[in-house]
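Session log. Operator J.P. requested a structure for one protein chain; no other inputs attached. Running the standard single-chain path with C-alpha cell output.
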Amino acid sequence: MKLKHNKKRNTAFLYEALVKEITKAVMDKDVEKKNLLVSMVKEHFAPGTTLRKELDLVKTLCETKHVDIYTAERLVAESKKQYDTLDQEQIFEEQSQVINKVNKAAGKHAFNNFVPNYKYLATISQLFGGGTTVKQRVLLERALIGAMVSKPGGSNKAKEMPHVDKLVFKTIIESFNKKYNNELLTEQKELLNKYIVSFGENVVEFRVYMNEEIGRLKEEVSTLHENKMFGENVDLKEKLSEVKETLNRFQTKRIDPAMIEKVMQIQKLIKECSD
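Structure written below.
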C-alpha cells in the first residue's frame, strides 16, 4: 500500500539524515560543519524535547523484534496513545527549524541520504499522524505488527548489499588509518562517501561507480606492469598480476566492507607505484 509521505516531516528521518551528514563531515574533516550539525542534534533532539519524545516512541517500535502478537499490539497501542499527548504544533515548528537549518548548513541534498528502514519509519509516521482513512490505518498497523513479530532467518531478497552501519564504517576507517598513517587519498574518500550512501535507490548507481573504478584500477595496473622503469622486477610484476586477478574477481562478487577495504588498499598501492 503506497501513501503520500513527506519525509521532511518525519522526525526519525530528520534525525537519521542529520547523523549521516555528521558522518560525512567527519570523513571530510570539515570540523566547522560537523560542530554545527552536532549542535543541531543537541538542541532539537535533547532529552525532554518534543522531537526527542517522538523519536523515542518511533525507536521503541522500530527496535522491537520477534515478539508475540499480543506484545506487539500493546506496544503499538500504547505508543500511539503517548504520541497523541504530544503537542503537534510544536512538533511542526521544531521540524521546520531543523529543516531550515539543515538546508543552510548542508544543502537540500542532505534529505536524499539513504536511511535504513525508511519505509518502516514512514509506516510508523503515517500511523501516528492523521490524514489516513480507517482502512489505511488498519493496514499500516497490520504491516507494523507483522514486522515486529516476524522471526529471524526469513528471506530478504531486496537486500542486495549488506548495510554498512556506523560501527562497521568506523571500523573500516580505523583499520585503514592505522595501516596508512591516517591519510586517505582523494579517491579513497570518494569511495567511502559513495559506499555509505549506496543503499536503497542508490544501489545501482554505486555498482556503476564500482565497475568504473575497478576498470580504472585495472588499466593503471596494466600500465604499471608494462612500465620499463620496473625492468625485470619479477616479484613486483607477479604482485601486479595478482592485483589484476583480484580486481577481475571483484567485478562479479557481492560488495561488502571487506571488498571496500581491499579496493582502498589497491588504490593506495597504485598511487605509491605511480609516484
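Operator note: Residues 203-226 form the longest helix (24 residues).
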